[in-house]
């Protein structure tokens, strides 16, 4: 078996002035309190823990760092008085610039809201193709209705209330007979097909020329045309 080659690259250990400058630069850059253990860990071992503690104390004694003790824990932070601060005039100028940007942002947000509303309206408006399709559909409906009205326009007598009621009665009788016959067939076919395999039942059904309800039949059965009619409405109509 081939030996495993280690490719770990160790961080060079800093000493003396280099270690002190490294720690001071890190705390200045981060500008937040750290303990010696955290500083050593964040520097990836560039400065040993023992040396880090000594350097932090030394930097605090020089006045570069501020040392804070909380219970048994000691923290060090970069001296805030040595951090360059902006003059009041520059701060006021920046605040004015920020306020201007915020006002501009408000105007832009209002414009975005208005444009979004316009876009929503445009998206909800039918396209030219959709309008043409709607017009064609309306024209087809008008043509169909006109054909239905043509006999009346030509003087054909309208159907009487008695004839209409007779049609309703015939339809109810024929549909009831159809439903009854369908139930009889379902019961009979269940008795016949239950003892035989499904494939044989299918073959027998095909050989006997049995025709099941088509999708048109199912749609008709579920339509309002097959819903029970209200006798009051029938009389009023």
From TrEMBL:
Main location, first listed in the record: nucleus
Pfam families: WHD_TBPIP
One example of a Gene Ontology biological process annotation: meiotic joint molecule formation
InterPro entries: Hop2_WH_dom, WH-like_DNA-bd_sf
Location(s) in or outside the cell: Nucleus
Record's keyword annotation contains Nucleus: yes
Protein name as catalogued: TBPIP-domain-containing protein
Species annotation: Crepidotus variabilis
């Amino acid at each position: 078996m081939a030996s495993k080659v280690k490719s770990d690259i160790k961080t060079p250990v800093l000493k003396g002035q280099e270690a002190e400058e490294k720690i001071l630069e890190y705390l200045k850059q981060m500008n937040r309190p750290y303990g010696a253990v955290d500083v050593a860990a964040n520097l990836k071992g560039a400065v040993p823990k023992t040396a880090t503690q000594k350097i932090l104390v030394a930097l605090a004694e020089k006045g570069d760092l501020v040392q804070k003790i909380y219970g048994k824990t000691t923290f060090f932070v970069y001296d805030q008085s040595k951090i360059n601060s902006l003059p009041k005039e520059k701060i006021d100028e920046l605040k004015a610039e920020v306020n201007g940007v915020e006002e501009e942002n408000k105007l832009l947000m209002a414009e975005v809201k208005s444009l979004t509303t316009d876009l929503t309206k445009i998206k909800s408006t039918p396209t030219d193709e959709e309008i043409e399709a709607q017009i064609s559909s309306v024209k087809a409906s008008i043509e169909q209705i006109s054909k239905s009205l043509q006999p009346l326009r030509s003087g054909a007598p309208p159907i009487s209330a008695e004839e209409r009621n007779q049609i309703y009665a015939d339809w109810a009788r024929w549909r009831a007979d159809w439903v009854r016959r369908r139930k009889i067939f379902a019961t009979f076919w269940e008795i016949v097909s239950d003892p035989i395999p499904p494939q044989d039942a299918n073959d027998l059904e095909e050989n006997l020329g049995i025709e099941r309800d088509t999708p048109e039949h199912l749609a008709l059965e579920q339509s309002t045309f097959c819903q029970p009619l209200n006798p009051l409405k029938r009389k009023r109509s």
